[in-house]
Amino acid sequence: MENTSNAPTPMKLQAVRGMNDVLPADSAKWEFFEETVTRVARQYGYRNMRAPIVEHTPLFVRSIGEVTDIVEKEMYSFEDKLNGEKLTLRPELTAGLVRAAIEANLTYNGPVRIYSLGEVFRHERPQKGRYRQFNQFDVECFGFDGPDVDAEIMIMTARIWRELGIDDVRLEINSLGNADERAAYRQKLIAHYEAHLDALDDEAKRRLHTNPMRILDSKVASVIEVNRTAPNLLDSLQDDSRAHFETLQQLLREANVPFEVNPRIVRGMDYYNRTAFEFVTERFGSPLTVCGGGRYDGLFEQLGGKSTPAIGFGMGIERMLMMLADRSNLAPLDAYLVHAGDAARVAAGKLAETLRDSGLAVAQHAGGGSFKSQMKKADASGARFALILGDNEVAAGTVAVKPMRNAAGEPIQGEQAIIMGSAVAAHLRRG
Ligand code: ATP
Ligand code: MG
Question: Ligand 1 pocket check: which of 37, 63, 134, 176 to mutate, most ligand atoms within 8 Å of Cβ?
């Protein structure tokens, strides 16, 4: 045994910086979001897929790109001490899902539509709407060359906003062309920046010859100024890419999904080509991207799979939830069951199970106590009804029902009703 007399004071245990807990008061919003996006995705024929949180580091370096913010400075990478493997906590979902699709030969029988929900990790400076662990809702269409499916995922996202009750996001789209078109554009862009070298910060200078398109994404004031006069990638598009982009716009107009073309959208990963898009809100002062995605027709091949055109997007769930109204007061329970005495406890257990059999949410009081203290718990639980069982009720085969809240979770002063046991479920549903 070690000598513990001069052991250091134990470290105060706290969550890791930038990583948040979701407490019960907040989780109603999370569940509402997850239920909504899951339902809508299924309505469009998308199926769920889940990949591991940890992947081999080269997967992200090769897919996202060596000269990107994510790979250069935001990845949680580590060596597994037990076997020396180089691993990374996923900074986004697409790469892992594509890796899994290649391994399982998922598109063998044709294209597939996928949605996924999960945690991602980026070592950024934490601030409002920017965390080190956050969650994404992700949609991927493997094996579709578009532009019909490009429009589809934007139409689906527009429906998600409607169902979430969000009306202040706008869609911005761009085309990043194909590899040849980007190579041509790259030359024009480098020439432009070389003519304005003084305005570039060190990071921009460093990227000038490795990844000049990243400079378009800069948040440095002098670079933003130079970007204003930068050549436009859309001018470098050839006929096929141009037609793809124009048809996408046509399809969005037909579906009444408003959009703007924003040639400055470059996105943070190198795998994108042709369609790129973001949904942006101004609700928090400066523009905030809540959802971004695009086409990545070369990624399957780049990761060792068969050539497979694809498109997808990632939606930041925490940023979405900042836009949703509080839901913590919505009644989570149909009934709270108050009981006193041995016979009542037994009857309460049976009644609670019967009500759950019929689909109702019922909490049975635990921990004893007087009727009065149990009624306080019933009130605090947010349940719509208190059900009261004492010896008298058990003897008479009845239960007292006290309405406490309406469907919107607002308190109501109700009469207490005495109801025969078998009719309770029907009564609660009518209420
Ligand atoms: P930003 O420009 O804000 O850094 P990004 O381009 O890095 O965003 P993506 O890689 O496209 O973002 O990720 C998709 C979505 O995930 C973003 O639109 C945003 O809603 C969310 N997101 C990105 N980084 C964070 C973060 N650190 N914390 C919370 N949400 C994030
Ligand atoms: Mg970022």
Answer: 134
